[in-house]
User: What shape does this take?
Amino acid sequence: MDEVDIVDLPDELLIELNLTAKSDDLILALFGNSKTLSISECLVGYYRAHGEVKSRQYMTVALYRMVKKNLLKPASGKGCYKLSLLGSRITKIGGATQ
Assistant: This one.
């Protein structure tokens, strides 16, 4: 599904679409209010928030997958990401896997 196709849908419907996996929700929460994060910052933030060490490869693949799902978009700088409009909305409504 393209971000343009669903950006105008109500929050209640976005939740029902199951656009994110639980692991995506945990990573999206790290971005807070439109922060730009590097892969290293995501790894540290994930550990601090969840007490679990993830590999750089795991995080890189997860972030890439979320870019493909239009939840994140590349930011300036190599390996930096920020929330897309859709990712921002999903974060505000508490994730799609409640």
Summary: The chain has six helices and three strands.
